[in-house]
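seq as requested:
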Amino acid sequence: MAEPIRVGVVGCGEVAQIIHLPTLRDLGDLFRVTALCDVSRNVLNAVSASLPGVKTFTSYLDLLNASEVDAVLIANPNVFHAEVALEAMKAGKHVLIEKPMCITLDQADELLAAEQKYGVTAQVGFMRRHAPAFTEAVERISAIRADIILARVHDVIGQNSLIIDSTTPVVRGDDVDTSIVAQGRSALSDAVKRAIGFSDGPKAAAYNLLLGLSSHDISAMRELIGKPDSVISATVRNGGRAITASFDYGHFVCQFQTAVDRIPHFDAHLEVNTPDEVVRIDYDTPYIRHLPATLTVQKKHGEAGCSQDKSFPTRYDSFGVEWRDFHANIARKRTPKTSIADAREDLVIFKQMIELM
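struct tokens:
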């Protein structure tokens, strides 16, 4: 494609300010940000100041009608992702939808139907699956999957603000009317109730955690070791802020655990054990750019020793790889690996987990 893809951004909050907009600036040969949308005029004014000529909107429908937009980054509050994505595809725009792409299975099916009807590229923002260390691990595991004896998915982190507030200034939408904020909370509550049958209590909180943080983990788990045969067990504790589960893979079990605490750390990894090696992928916080995921392989060394090889092929940001893949998917008219159909599989697993809690 000779000309950069023109991108409109819906939702200019912290993930757009800290990660997506700087990444798109770095990839200026592939993308050009031409339009911004946010309900906060303060945010729009601040973000647009560094993007000369960019158009600003407080209504996403107005942005979608702009002729200078080819593709849309959907990074507004989770509950509105599906709504915006549906209208964007209807308008003939390609979409990169931040996770979670939606709240309910019905919404996922609507998104699938729209993608097929309008023939646009729709990619879901699971950037961890684009990390070069992860794709190396997927290739390595594919050759030894029959030998796996145990697997683990672990994600225990502090609140994002503990890292963001000490590293990066973010313009907040303090001027947004409280009624708009209340409307968003009400919409999320209603959507969660449609998805799992209730909208409050520990299991509802757990479902929101699964949609947010854990969607990265379950999505990566599926690509690394495949889709589980079933969910054996699932528990929720600490008011929905700590979740454990066991997934049945026939000849092995994968243990899952996630929690949010008050320590400014990021302990996220996937680990696969075979009789002859341990393969592990570690992630660091995405809110500090260019911290690479690492691949560690442990093996026997000599008669009674071990060797450990820790590596990463590049420091290039996984969000950058994600955006490069989005460009290639559009240019080559290929289906993204993090497609709508792929992300729908997570919602099925989440619902099974909730039913067992």
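The two ends are 49 Å apart (CA to CA).
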